[in-house]
Amino acid sequence: MTNEGRAQALMLVAQYVHARRLDHPVRVAVDGVTASGKTTLADELSNELTKLGRSVHRLSMDGFHHPRARRYKQGRHSALGYYEDAYDFSSLAQHVLIPLGPGGDFHYRRAIIDLATDTPVDEPALQLQQSAVLVVDGTFLQKSEIVDLWDTTIFVHTSFDVARRRGVARDAAALGGITQADHAFKVRYHAASQLYLDEASPAERASLVFDNDDLDQPSVRMVHPESP
């Protein structure tokens, strides 16, 4: 088994992001359906950008969930509830994307909630250099309320069957077993992802699409290139 193909694909993505030179930090979204491989790609991209000499900060949408009562108000198995209520995109815009964008003060918060304990987080804001890159991984990152606040969007394209197998293997222990995890992915997480694909067409709107069904031989497609 070789990782040469993946290394080449990662290099292409890193070089694309590295070429972006703005008057504020570059805000990068790594988007995709649940269990598509977003977090892994975001970590790999951050490492490659660091090798290229960029200052890179990582942020996960885990820290920008709504409280549990809001997340499950439409039911623990509701796809619409997951799509509408899981993430606090208003806070992400207010505390991260807007201050790191044009005219901002380059300060941002890493989280507003501790997902495990369901308690608010109130940590001091961090400051980025103008030349820095912020890499954010999460689901639904091209929803209408924040789609225009990114400088680069990478959509991790993974088929639902492949993503479900990976997700079930990853989350079975947390979700009560393989059968329960498979059900959760079908009726909640991936049903919500389908709502997102139908509404936002994220693969068509992204800067780059990272085809990730084959982890060792992914491919990269440029969709909407931006100016450096």
TrEMBL record:
A Pfam family matched in the record: PRK
UniProt-listed InterPro entries: P-loop_NTPase, PRK/URK
Organism superkingdom: Bacteria
Every Phosphoribulokinase/uridine kinase domain range: 28-176
Organism: Rhodococcus sovatensis
Protein name: Phosphoribulokinase/uridine kinase domain-containing protein
